[in-house]
Amino acid sequence: MPLTPNPKSQILNPASAPAYFEQFNDLYRQIDLTRLPAHVAIIMDGNGRWARGKGWTRIFGHEHGRDSVREAVKTSGELGVKALSLFAFSTENWSRPKEEVEFLMRLFDRTLREETQEMAASNVRLRTSGDLSRFPAWLQETIRHSVETLSGNTGLILNLAVNYGGKQDILQAVNRLQEGYRIQDTGYRVTEEEFEKHLQTSGLPAVDLLIRTSAEQRISNFFLWQAAYAEFVFMDVYWPDFRRQHLLKAILEYQGRDRRFGNVIS
Ligand code: FPP
Known about the structure:
The protein is α/β, with parallel strands linked by helices. The protein contains 9 helices and 6 strands. The protein has one domain: Decaprenyl diphosphate synthase-like (Undecaprenyl pyrophosphate synthetase, 3-Layer(aba) Sandwich), CATH 3.40.1180.10. It has helices at about 20-25, 25-30, 45-55, 60-80, 100-120, 135-150, 165-180, 190-195, 245-255; strands at about 40-45, 85-90, 125-130, 155-165, 210-215, 230-235. Helix 6 (about 135-150) links the parallel strand 3 and strand 4 (about 155-165). The structure holds farnesyl diphosphate.
């Protein structure tokens, strides 16, 4: 099926950027736009190793990883993926060296300040999963401002998982339910739908495709509930080298899988 570019896209318009578009044409042509994953989640791994391999300090890996974030956002938006979740900072990442944690906070801040206008032009919405309260006030404010600026958009939902942990998310949902009046009713049973309303991804579709870069094959406390039926694609590329073609290839791999959801092959 030929690609029908997202009409709102400012970035990948074959008419305005034919040479750039042409490089990826073969991959795009193979993608069935009627069977896109609604929600793609990415564990962006390998920044440190990428930088170390070049004889640089780890933070350069994070800095370059930002370009890969842009590529993933643009490509997802243009294709018409509904939601893209990026695991940018886990609840365990606080144990990294103080300088690295501080660098990441500044990088998130700088990225949002510099990219929000382009995301606005590309019809991207922004939300977060994770406990923001541990972040410095200035970063919380930048995030709040970007979320608000992009709130009127209708395209891709970019969900940044920051200070996010899958176990913590589930526990928090349990505790919120417990605080609610209904759970105290004798015999009341919580449904999946009600439980999901209390998760930090409330309102997002279930994860269809979960990508992890750097060839590691684990979930690392990311979307434990949300990825229950996700297709996993592990890619042998460090995150700073992740480009448009990697996402397209992962989507093609997803489209080649037989998703049975516990059922039998028809
Ligand atoms: C994992 O690589 C990467 C992170 C924990 C940070 C992710 C941050 C970015 C990609 C920066 C830009 C992001 C946004 C949203 C602006 P690692 O450091 O664990 O790499 P290693 O496994 O090789 O040590």
